Task: structure prediction
Amino acid sequence: MATVSHGEEPVTTAGDLEVERLSPSAPRPERPPSPPRRRRSGLHRGENLFGWLFVSPSLTLLLLFLVAPIILALYISFTNWSGLTSPTSSAVKWVGLQNYRTIITQPGLYQTNFGSAIRNNFYFVIFTVPLQTIFALWLAVLVNNRFLRGRQFFRTAYYFPSITSSIAITTIFIFLFQGSGVVNTILGWFGIKGPNWLYDQQGIFWDFFGFFGLTSPPAWANHMVLGISLWDWIAGPSVGMCFIIILAVFTTSGTFMLFFLAALQNISEELDEASEIDGATGWQRFRRVTLPMLRPALVLVLTLGFISTWQIFDQIFLTASNPTVITPAYLSYQVSFTDSAFGVGAAVAFLLFCLIVFLTVLQRGFIKEDLTQ
Amino acid sequence: MKRWKVIGGLTLSAALVAAAPTAAMAQGAPKLVGKTTGVTLNFMIASSGTAETNADRAAAAAWGKQTGNKVNVINSSNLTLQLTEGFAGGSPPDVFYGETPLFESMAKQGQLLDSGNLIATPSSFFPSLVDAYTYNHTFYCVPKDSSTLAIEINTADWKAAGLTNANLPTTWAKLAYDAKVLTKGKTTGLVISDTLDRLGAFFAEAGGSYMNASRTGFTFDSPQNLEALTYLAGLAKAGYLKFPEQVDATWGGEALGDGSAAMTVEGNWIIGAMQSTYPKVSYEVVPMPAGPTGKHGTLVFTNCWGIAASSKYTAADVSFVKYLASPAQQLRFANAFGVMPSRPSVATQWAAEHTTPVASGPTGTPNVSPFVQGDAYAMPQVATIGFPTVQNAFDSAILGLANGSSKPKQMLSELQTNAEALLQP
Result:
């Protein structure tokens, strides 16, 4: 191995290679580090242009179908567009922050619906993200076992719900969870009378409070925040929302299982064996060796989980008759298309966007990806 | 890179602005444009089932053949959504069902051609229907048909319970008694969809209403409406009245068809639905009961033939709608899927042909005169912009009447407050 002194370590450019080719044995002159982009010659001429050319189709699609609609939607959230004319026509008036005021500060049905939607989605997130992360990790650890026969089959089976259409799965779940459907029949074998899953609006925390004798709201809980009372805020997810939580955990665990599986397979077996030799039990091995090494995958799964659960729409669209299941994404659609109030709908969408960005930044602050940071 | 993205985005937005078409405003007597032959029209419908779709297709094909045109029949799964998309994008369908919630928005923004007077004189239709489609003293579109609510009773269950004609639910008390007797085993006596669009009939029977006479204010929170809702809450708590979600159905007709309901409250559309989905179930139709003061009430649902003001072939559109609204075609529609013609003359003729009180099923359609009778005292839906969300909030509380978690007084006062908020500019 040739030794190169630190001061002569050059940034390799095309020019350097040419110099080397010409006189390999001559001592290389000291050269200051050259700027990263130099005029290319010969083989590399036009590389820049071709780069742009190859990227331009997807860039155009991104601009046309992502960036332009988002800018247009932001503009619409400051107008009173009703959807029946072009958004840029003269009939559409600029109303400034009125739409935002309608859903945040002005008491009325829109404010109540928005508050409700935020509360519903909040409980959905805090139940679904931990459940699906733990479930996915558990499945990944199971499937990663060297001694498990038929690993390929199990991997495919657990991943299958993620590649099936969410509409199809939701429809089947609705059928299974009907009032007198399969799930309630099975619960009936154990003597439990199952609730009418989809339509029950009873918050499960209320039932929990009921165990301690607290069946009606105390005086302080009648205070209204964002149009709904504090008693409603602490109601927890309703039975209908629990149905959606079960559905979401079932559908997305497969995808996250794959992330964890990939990360698990990157951990060398020698590490595990070494800790076993050192006397660590299975649980200690998992907690002190495996889990810290899974940190990047965990952060990825949590971030993706939070972002996607705050935006859930498909499942809500199919079970929309329960108001404790409405989420901001669905509310935005509902307000826009049934009330022709696209300005308010766009305002809801942008508030949701700001909320997600804020929470993601918060989450990144709490759970650092790299332990050395 | 980021800078290019911003510049690119702004350029695209500017391009979109430049290319956006402006909405055509209809003023005065509309001028009709376009050829009347050799054109292709887009006709958007929101069908209640196969019978209606086929009837629309047949009518479109017949007119097309007659005039040398072509009509694309588009059956939308969500009419409000697709109409909004069409208008926003500048290419709405030429002729479409102009349903009540969107009607006012469309009329206000000049999207609807005021074609009413061009098709026929307003006096040839039921006055209440013409009223529903008049905005700002302009008769915008011709009502196509109407449906009212009535009670449908499963004749097999009725006979099995030993009930006779004397027990027919002509009053609230009799209805409650019938619901009680007919509730046994898996069958509930009465199943009604949990929406204001069904329960509102009882409001009318109690003497209440949705709006005041001049249509400038709402009257939801009245003692009469409260009496009606309390009556229904009582039946629901006792278990004689259930809502479709409680019996795993999506609407009253389905509950009637699969045997979980002995009676239901539905409109004319149930005729076509029962014939195609539950042909073996025999049922009869009786008018809605009279309220405590002896007043009869029901709800009317109607639709109109809308023509887009920005359509390129308004002359052909008017000719097409004239054909669709003609007495002969109205009779054909009525026979095909059971809606009532909007012309009084045709309606009486149709009712006369179907008054033999023969139960439905393989032998034919039931006695439809209760539906026709209802037209005389029916209450129309609310057409105010933004009302669907308000109604949604009320509807979602109805299921709570069964276990007492929703209180009628509170439901009505919330409905009143929310509805009044819509009238503030």
Observations:
- The interface with chain B takes residues 59, 63-64, 67-68, 71-72, 82-91, 108-110, 112-113, 178-181, 196, 198-199, 201-202, 321-323, 334-335, 337-341 of chain A (CB under 8 Å).
